[in-house]
Hints:
The protein is of the alpha/beta class. It is built from 12 helices and 7 strands. Strand 2, helix 8 (168-180) and strand 3 (184-190) form a beta-alpha-beta unit.
Amino acid sequence: MTMEPDHDKLVEMLRRMHRIRFFEQKAKTLYDYEYRLRGDDEETARAKGVIEGALHLAIGHEGTEVGTCAALNDDDYVTSSHRGHGHAIAKGADSKLMMAELMGRETGYSRGCGGSMHIFDPDLGLMGGNGIVGGQIPLAAGGAFSALYRGTKQVAVAFFSDGASNQGTFHETLNMASLWRLPVIFLCENNLYAASTPSTITLSIPDIADRGAGYGIPGVVVDGQDIMAVFECVSAAVSRARAGEGPTLIESKTYRFLPHTAGGSEHNNPGELEEWLKRDPILLFESWLLERGHMTSDDQSGLRQEVEDEIEAAEAFGKASLFPKFENMPTPSGVEL
Length: 337
């Protein structure tokens, strides 16, 4: 049985869940489709902080994202997907630098050149998002191999989707990770849709976790809306990995409350969404904290306001930051532009 986090850590877990939720809600309001709706020209819209390029939100996944990262150490590795804001924030990313990156400003994590899908900070063990479906899975195995080779106790986590579990990189990496007993955790966020295609018509089996058996890897299903269940499940997998017992495949059953991209406005299954909203991971965790006396309603209201103010400040920081200049971009040695 995993030891329950102390009070301060539990409060921080809730804070990071709210940070993800408010950040993504703010990002949606700034997405580039809106400058057309307002009638601004593109230059004016960019100056106002409109977010351009691709934007994929994961509102509804917060229990899985924070529950997983709460089980890791600061120097453990995480690789992420195109839908990766929550993974970055859960691992400790700064909301100001995140927002600046989404706005394309030079104060962002990738100096405004990476955007939503490429948040990267090796100091946090955050080895970047990936716009290629499934591309982050072998990268996590690489991080795990590095830790094994150097003799550290670090582990790596690859966050990926149900859609990515059908990619060849998933199967190839599980095979290699099992052969080499790599300290890696394959964390599938099964939100029941690959883009807008239901998993019921893309998966050959009901539970992706069962695919681990074919590679000699334990496969576990966990309720992704229950942050404490995720924390306990991932903590056990981390302990196995640090002990040299190899990888674990975890399938977190969760749900995305918004369409595939931020540009969409209608959920493709409103009735299904209504049922899942009853199990909003933030509301469930707030109730859990209240029941156990870790927080009062006033405490939680105050925390929500603090985080909302933080995201407003992140928006202001991004808007006040400069756009990158071509002549200031670093280039490889000897290359002339």
